[in-house]
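Format notes (please read before filing issues)

Several people have asked whether sequences and structure tokens are stored in separate files. They are not. Every record keeps both together, in the order shown below: the sequence lines, then the token lines. Line labels are part of the format and must not be stripped during preprocessing.
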Amino acid sequence: MKQLFLLPLLALSAPASATSLADIAVSLKGTTSLSADFTQAGADGRVLAGKLWLARPGKVRFQYNTAKMLLVGDGRTLSFIDYEVKQVSQWPVRRTPLQILLAAEPDLAPIARITADTPDGVEVAARDPKRPEFGTLSIRFVRAAGAPGGLALAGWTALDAQGGRSEVRLANVRYGASLAGVSFGVTDPRKDGPR
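Then the structure lines:
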């Protein structure tokens, strides 16, 4: 599961594009909060579903419906918790591929290329040459008049160091969503109580 976010990257070429990386950055920056349903297809073929909440900058929560797992970013740290085996893995948000979606000031030019630009949507492949262990993150947007910058986040595909592929698809995306009652903290299963 954590391979979804720690990935190596491929060199990508960008096609001629009417949409610019600056347009993508405007969309990301304009996304101050959102909620969505997600499905995640892992490299192992396992498909999980759940609810996603995002509050920029730096906060995200993936709440799985049936799996006893949680992925949550509190603004500084991204934590993956597997409650079934009481395992916690943590990374600084700024050192994960999700930083692209969560940064206060998205700067895509040094790490991203537009790989598809159609009347329906845009795909951007991001690869940080300074952190090749992150892998490649291909982010998909669909054109939607009500979304920030006219581009609605539709999902992403991550490619890890072993060539494993994980895909997240979003549905029922709501921008400016109320995050009342959503916690971006975690309960550490190795300890008593929240941390």
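For reference, the curators noted about this record: The helical segments are 21-30, 99-102. The CA atoms of residues 34 and 175 lie 4 Å apart.
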